[in-house]
Amino acid sequence: MLAIIRDAGWPIWPLIATSFLALTLIVERLLALRRTRVLPPAVLDDVLGLVQKKRITPDIIDKLDASSPLGRVLATGLRHRHRTRSATQEALEATGHSVAHDLGRHVGAIGTIAAVAPLMGLFGTVVGMIEIFGAYSPVGNDPSTLAKGISVALYNTGFGIFIAIPAMVFYRYLRTRIEDYLHDLEQAAIRLVDTLHDE
């Protein structure tokens, strides 16, 4: 591996840094977007039960707000439970936008890395080609210099693609997971509003 990095030349270092950044962001988002962390089981049913029993207190709302994205949405609805249905829905919609923003944090950066990594690899290819043409001479060519230029060109292109493929896969996967969560959060908000205003 060290030999590959040496042969790839200096353009490989930005790619290595990019790969570590992508790995860090992907792991962070996978941990943050676990279903039990975003949509804790039984929370919605527990809250609806408390609403029906009229046992909602400010302390319960504050704890709910700090517990999870689902908790934030439900806490917003509970804070606005004495307002009209439309006012409650507007407040829930505003919180939903905020939650969606938080869930999608860093996901755009992963998509950017997926798009930029091949271009960074292509830059390495250009550097390698410059070295190849710089070593070319009508009188005689230095095989070691030509080989080094080819190594720089191919290794950087390959490594750029190697970074881009999993980054794009995880980018699409995380986007889909977030969309699923937002749909579930929307359904939870609808159930809460129906319960609050059907009392």
UniProtKB/TrEMBL annotation:
Membrane topology according to the record: Multi-pass membrane protein
Record keyword Acetylation present: no
Main location: membrane
A Pfam family assignment: MotA_ExbB
Domain MotA/TolQ/ExbB proton channel residue range list: 67-186
Compartment(s) of residence: Cell membrane; Membrane
Protein keywords: Cell membrane, Membrane, Protein transport, Transmembrane, Transmembrane helix, Transport
GO biological process, any: protein import
UniProt keyword Transport present: yes
Entry's transmembrane regions: 12-31, 107-133, 153-174
InterPro entries (alphabetical): ExbB/TolQ_transport, MotA_ExbB_proton_chnl
Residues annotated as signal peptide: none
GO CC entries: plasma membrane
Family named by the database record: Belongs to the exbB/tolQ family.
Protein name: Biopolymer transport protein ExbB
Organism: Pigmentiphaga litoralis
